[in-house]
Amino acid sequence: MLMKSQKRSEAFMSKNKIELVSSGIEGLDGILGGGFPLGWVIVVAGGPGSGKTTLSTEFVIQGCLKGEPGILVTLNEPRHHVLTTMGVFGWDLEFLEREELLTILDYSATNVLYSIHKQGMKDGGPSLNFMIDQLQDKIDSTGAIRLMIDPLNAFSFLFKDKFSMRRELHKLFGMLAGRKTVSLTTLELGSSEMPFTVEEFLAYGVVRLYHKKIGRDRERSIEVVKMRGLKQSKSSFPFEISSTGCRVFESTETFDF
Ligand SMILES: Nc1ncnc2c1ncn2[C@@H]1O[C@H](COP(=O)(O)OP(=O)(O)OP(=O)(O)O)[C@@H](O)[C@H]1O
Ligand SMILES: [Mg+2]
To answer: What b/e readout covers 160-173, taking b as 16+ CB neighbours within 10 angstroms?
Structure first.
């Protein structure tokens, strides 16, 4: 009897293991609990200029530099602007495109979002089906592992009600998770103290970036709010953007896994 229950307990132990993908950003893996889990959709939320685009783009680039294909989906900034603003960090995105390691999908023009809307209406109501299908094809044809979608807020005006928005984000996140990607999706927040949003509840992980005014200056910090399946850090950590990109300054906090 005892043997049987012991065997059952052993058999019951989950064989599912979380596979971690190193972010490649100095200091970030430490505060995440090792890296971003493969298959997770992460929301990177913060105010204007808090570093959402830079951090998420660097994550994709660091993968490319290791030979992992990546995709940048830009919904606000046009392609040429992304090339310029990321170029200041010394990152030549066109080189990575030529090496077939990076794909930039530019959905920034209003008419592109309008096409997404129009196509959705043909399908019976506003939806992201058109974009999800295109993105899925790109992930399959390039074998992309790391993705960035910047910012999720661009979709919000396509939907009149919160239910449709939640349903469509759920569909998008489901496709990304099913394709075994690590997707950083950015979210614009009006204030650092803003209550948590639908996107953050739906995501598997949430990182918030802060750029708080302290006296006459602003200080950057980063917080891992949630990372399902991992024991992440409890604090906020100083975060820096310099001419070479992003850096997190970890403390000596320890983790028990
Ligand atoms: N070489 C550099 N050294 C220090 N800071 C820099 C450098 N280049 C750019 N920055 C800063 O990095 C920040 C870039 O922010 P980024 O565009 O990633 O923010 P964001 O959160 O995506 O903003 P938005 O909501 O406007 O899209 C800007 O505040 C910019 O001033
Ligand atoms: Mg941005």
So the answer is: eeeebbeebbeebb
User: How far is the CA of 58 from the CAs of 62, 63, 91, 159, in angstroms?
Assistant: 6, 9, 9, 30
35 φ, ψ to 5°? 155, -175
Site of tokens 């660091």: 62
- How big is the CA angle at 175 (ends 102 and 139), to the nearest 5 degrees? 25
Q: What residue segments make up the domains of the chain, in order of their start?
A: 28-248
Cut 0.85: pTM above it: yes
The residue contributing the CA closest to ligand 1 atom 25 is: 48
Peptide bond between residue 69 and the one before it cis (omega within 30 degrees of 0) = no
Q: What is the per-residue pLDDT across 129-149, written as a single tens digit (0 to 9) for each? A: 888 999 999 999 999 999 999
Ligand 1 in reach of 56 Cβ (< 6 A): no
Q: Is the CB of 52 under 6 A from ligand 1?
A: yes
Span 202-236, pLDDT tens digits: 999 999 999 998 899 999 999 999 999 888 788 99
d(CA 191, CA 87): 28
**DSSP bridge partners of 242:** 245
Is the domain 28-248 a CATH 3.40.50.300 member? Answer: yes
